[in-house]
Amino acid sequence: MTMRNLEWADEEVEQLRQAGTYMELRVLESPQEPRAVVNGKRVINLCSNNYLGLTTHPRMKQAARQANERYGVGTGSVRSIAGTFTLHRDLEEHLARFKHTEAALVFQSGFTCNSGIIPVLAGDGDVIITDELNHASIIDGIRLSKAVRVIFPHRDMDALESALKEAHSARRRLVVTDGVFSMDGDVAPLPEIVDLAERYGAMVYVDDAHASGVFGRNGRGTINHFGLDGRVHVQVGTLSKAIGVLGGYVASTEGLRDLLINRGRPFIFSTSHPPAVTAACIAAIEVLESEPELVERLWDNTRFFKREIQNLGFDTGTSESPITPIIVGEPHTAMELSRILFREGVFALGIVYPTVPRDKSRVRTIVTATHTREDLEEAIAAFRTAGRELGLIADSVAV
Length: 399
Known about the structure:
Number of helices: 14
Oligomer: single chain
Number of domains: 2
Helix content: 40-55%
CATH topology of the largest domain: Aspartate Aminotransferase, domain 2
């Protein structure tokens, strides 16, 4: 059925199909595990952000069940009226200790963190200086502010310094960067960024969505990884990736927390996290602190998979993390690679424009701590088959 005056939507969808950039939803019929049932087929799952396998960790499932029994399935209110439960306060205290900051505040998602926090930090008369490959939620957060936006080339510290010099007369200067960049898997040069910001009197804002639970001691993130605790003004992260549940958070000072409670629009106008979600997040932090072997296993799997994929001859770009892109060029090629991989029993989606440049289309993979060596070897064999079929790697590559 096509409703009158919405025919244009069908036309635009067809244009996406013709361009090779149309994305359809795949349906999981099983838990988010290394091997999952997707669209009715059991496959090796290389799409999930479930880095440590915490979505099915027994301690977290138990915490969620107990919270449901005690508090019910929802909170019935926004935090600023009647929706702040003891569990929310406990989670924020856990996060602040974990991130080595004075305070933390939980938002409904990582996206709402960036769209709600950035406009509070910078406005009319301020300058936001942002890496060109920062996440879409950062871009939208900057658009919602009234600050001047300056975009510097990816990881280019000379360009960042020039932008800081030019912004010397601004009321406030805010440097924003991802800790780990979600499509390329490379890491921001945080020591250099922090040094420059301190030299020019700027604030530093790091979105550690793909680093929390992955980098640093017990997964504390890139700030801890580089020994920069106490030198980064604002740390943002998600509770939906390595933490394995849902939500986002900001870790900073008591003053900023109090200000965001009063001015952070997504926080003020969204119902708070259900008790089961909040309790599971608390349990996840406790697991990170008590089971460091999960992070070690994640990195062992990452090194093995990355090495073997590179040995086949695939282009993995500049990745330094468990995010390993297989860069193939045009959108149609990326989508066809994903299709053949699925046929061979591997779930790894194509990533195309506008998420990445048209000529940098790719299949993005993420290995987890809970993949077995057998899982990864089978996945590598599937990439070998697909790569040869598409002419992306040479037939002479050893089996």
